[in-house]
Each structure stands twice: as structure tokens, then as C-alpha cells.
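Aim 2 progress update. The chain analyzed this quarter is reproduced below.
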Amino acid sequence: MTERILVVEDHAGTLDLLTKLLQKEGFDVIRAANGEDALLTLKNELPDLVLLDIVLTGMDGFDVCRTIKGDPVYRNIPVIMCTAKDTLPDRLKGAEFGADDYITKPFNNCDLVSRIRLHLRLRSMDEQLLMTVHQLQLTRKARQEQAEALERGQKDTINALMAAVEAKDPCISKHARNVAEICRAVAVRMGFDKRSLTNLNYASLLHDIGKIGVPTEVLAKENRLEKEELEIIRRHPEISAEIIRPISFLRRVIPIIRHHHENVDGSGYPDGLKGDGIPLEARVLAVADAYDAMTSDRPYREAVSRERAITLIAERAGTQFDADIVNIFAEVMRENATAEEVAPSMS
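Predicted C-alpha cells:
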């Protein structure tokens, strides 16, 4: 595409000379003999570059340049001042008003043409850069929207699973939300990264979903469970893991859910893991799970106090629970004056 140059020059001979020179170099030339015509032509023709004399009839070149550069529609069009005024104040004034270059008369034809081509290339590069930035912004926005849609879908899946559990036993759902809040408070103190926090949150909310397969009469039994009933209850981590296995984004939390009843001394279930062999998130979940169970009423016993629950968990540090996690958990719980500050739904 032929580039268009607006030449603004009130001397007819110079205007003709510049027109012939630029046309010979392959440019399309638009002409204006004064500042007012130049601005009108600018709006109608939208040139790629303006070659501007300073001394004009009526509005001078400085005012024309200032008008062009002050308009957001035209400010990116390069303006080269081509004038006989060769004083430092004139050059500084041109720069102040936004001129991209300043050439004095008499000029060298090759120098003039090379400067014009340079500024046209710079403008083209600027436009390409702006287009690239705009495309990157669109891409970023699209990816952000995709991520948000994915996150909404994941939350909807979690909520649907939680609703299924709640239909079975509302207490399970309430317990899961309490445990999730406690886990988050402890994990944040431990310095978990965002992905680990998300994994732990999902696992906390779904760790007991396997109880959906436990008979209601077993869950609600007020007396001590028989051996066979206890075995049914103890299968819920495995059942929970199997329920979420088909859901791709939840597969990464399967080890957390499956092993949240393992004990650090190896006496837990279902696989008898011990120490660091138990996923870190599962060890955090185990403490939070036990605490909320202790401080909640059950059909077969009444809840214990917050302080008593913390003490009982501390007594089992190093055997049932990870001792380091217990210490952090106790700090977090005691630093909060009320249970609501850690788990708003606990009260």
C-alpha cells in the first residue's frame, strides 16, 4: 500500500519541488498551503506522515503541530518540520509541541527521504507493537475467562457432591465446611502455596463423602458401634476416594482423602502409612477433622470444649497426629478469641 505524505508549505515553488521529489520516491502526496487547510486535509485524508513548514499564512506550523499531537486520533502520525528557521529556540519549540523530527532548508534530498522512511518504519513498528499488545490482552482476557469458567465448574461439582452428602446427613456437610476452614487457617500458617491450599480445601470438603454409602442407622447409632459397623465406617476414606476418582480435577486430592485417617505411628487406616509417608495435607486434615468431631455433638456423646479438644489432640501428638502440625494448630486456635474467627460455621 502506497504511503501518503501530507506536505504543508505556503511557497508554491517549494511545494511543487517536494511533491515531485516524494512522488518520484513512490509516495502519494497530499498538499496544503496553510495551517487551516492542513488540519482539514488531515481529517479527510488521514496521511501516514506530515511534512510541515513553520512559517505559514494564518496558523503557523508550531500551532498545527501542537493541534495534531494534542488530538488522540492523530497524535501517532509522525510530524517532520521542514523549515528555514534554524535557531535552537525554534528546534526546542518544535520538540516541545511534539514534532518527531526537524529538518532545515535548504535540505539534502536523500537526507529528507531517508528521514521520512525512518519515521514511517517507526510508526509501522509502533502500530505492530500496539496490535501485539492488544492481541496479548485479548488472549490474557480469554484465558482468564476460561480459568474462571473452569473454576465455576469445579465449584459447581463440589457443591453438587456436597448436596448429595447433605441429603444423606446435614451434619456431614456442616462438619466438612468447618474442617475446611480450620485446615485453611493452619495451612496458611504453614506457608502452603495456592495450589496446595486448593487441594486441601477440596479434600476437606469431600473427605467424608464416602459416608453416603454408610447406612443411616449406623451413622445415627447412639450406642457403641459393633465391630462390623466400625469396619463399615472405616471404609469411608476408600469409598470417598473412589467416588471422586472419575472426576479429573479431583484426582490429585485422592491421596489426601484416602489417607486422612492414617496415624503417624502407623496404626491408622486404610493402609497403615506412617510418618512422612502420609501426605502432608492429609496430616493437616486429620487434626482438623478430629478437632471438629470432638467439639461437635454426636448421637453417642456430647461435645467437649475447645480447650479440652486442643489438649486431647496435643496428647496424641507423635502417635496419632503429626507433632509439628499439632503445635501450629494449637497456636492458630488459641490466637483466635472465638471459634468463629477460624471456622465461622463451627458455632
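The first strand starts at residue 4 and ends at 8. Confidence is low (pLDDT under 50) at residues 337-341. These observations will guide the mutagenesis experiments scheduled for the next reporting period.
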